[in-house]
Write a structure and sequence with these properties.
The chain is mainly β. It folds into two domains: 126 residues, no CATH class; 195 residues, no CATH class. The protein has five helices and 21 strands. Strands 1, 2, 6, 7, 8, 9, 10 and 11 form an eight-stranded mixed beta sheet that branches. Strand 18 and strand 19 form a beta hairpin. It is globular, with a radius of gyration of 21 Å.
């Protein structure tokens, strides 16, 4: 545990400084480059609905894919690893801990009766981070039961709506805050868009410095930038969430969305419905004026707990997630002028 924690801290600091069981005989051979690796015979098939879409897993150690489909309905969907628009499908493939993203292909949904999915998929081209080619054709998935999270909503001062999810005794926002205005009507200073992009803001929310997130309050559980009836979680409340999900060594995988994270990250399962995205950070130092290129690699969420143990630096507690670890790490060491994401918890 200590060694894993140390590795996670080191990686984050370096970053800132810089269901049902069935066999499927229709699944055909896999080729990486010119090397044939054999035939797939998945041993389990599971599908469930997440905040982003439907996730289907065909064997825990061979091949997985995630579909982003607006509604559960029949039809043919293009495979893409970029476009999140209607009628598209996000298709992420993992082979024995080596992950790929498909860039060409189709998913054909042929049956959606009884809240299940049946259909076929065909991948014609995909690559790993090392550039190796992956080719699969005519895969099949049959009668996969969909399990849905139950989400509610909350609205901020600007009438942005956010999905919310109950986890244990707490109710959390299941999307990142994207408000430029406090509930008092005052503008929020020190808040940043990712790459100054409105489209990215709508997906990932905004970066807030700690004073912006807390509305310059050092009172724990202050409302800060959160909607009325909600507040910025204290470090203790983050700890409660982590404990509810099994502790820091495994909570990360249950908090992290199946989508938006750079590979590796095959362990992420969004088991809580929290749907943490790989949002990156905003760094105030001139040579790191915008680190949103770290999207997919890490994300941090502010707490309302100020830290007084780091000498002359102004720091506060936060929760960090990383694409190469299942750890959810609370830390007091990050400067309050960094731009982190905000999730609010209900009073």
């Amino acid at each position: 545990m200590k060694s894993n924690r140390f590795l996670f801290v080191l990686i984050l600091i370096m970053g800132l400084a810089r269901g049902c069981v069935k066999d499927d005989p229709d699944l055909t051979s896999l080729t990486i480059g010119n090397k044939k690796t054999g035939n797939f015979v998945p041993s389990r098939s599971v599908a469930y609905k997440t905040l982003e879409g439907y996730t289907v897993e065909l064997s825990s150690d061979t091949i997985t894919f995630s579909m982003l489909i607006p509604d559960l309905k029949t039809g043919s969907y293009s495979i893409t690893d970029q476009n999140l628009s209607d009628g598209k499908a996000i298709f992420n493939i993992g082979l024995k801990q080596t992950a790929y993203s498909a860039s060409e292909g189709t998913i054909l949904i042929t049956d959606t009766r009884n809240n299940t999915i049946s259909g076929t998929y065909s991948v014609t081209n995909s690559t790993s981070v090392d550039g190796e080619l992956l080719k699969i054709s005519n895969g099949k998935f049959d009668k996969l039961v969909i399990e849905s999270f139950v989400y509610s909503t909350v609205e901020d001062y600007e009438h942005n709506q956010y999905k919310t999810i109950e986890i244990g005794s707490q109710t959390w926002m299941a999307q990142n805050l994207k408000s430029f205005i406090y509930s008092s009507g005052d503008s929020i200073k020190e808040v940043y868009r990712y790459n100054k992009s409105d489209s990215l803001m709508n997906i990932y929310g905004l970066y807030y410095t700690w004073p912006a997130a807390t509305n310059k309050s050092k009172t724990e559980m202050t409302q800060g930038a959160c909607p009325v009836g909600w507040h910025l979680p204290s470090d203790y409340e983050w700890q409660q969430l982590v404990d509810e999900l099994g502790g820091e060594s495994v909570a990360g995988r249950k908090l992290m969305s199946m989508l938006s994270w750079t590979t590796p990250n095959g362990w992420a399962d969004n088991g809580s419905g929290f749907s943490a995205l790989g949002a990156g950070i905003h760094h105030p130092v001139s040579e790191y004026t915008d680190l949103s290129e770290r999207m997919g690699l890490q994300t941090f969420f502010w707490s309302s707990t100020f830290d007084n143990t780091t000498g002359g630096l102004s720091t506060a507690w936060s929760l960090g997630l990383n694409n190469i670890s299942s750890i959810a790490l609370r830390s007091p060491y990050y400067r309050t002028d960094l731009g982190f994401s905000v999730r609010c918890v209900k009073n």
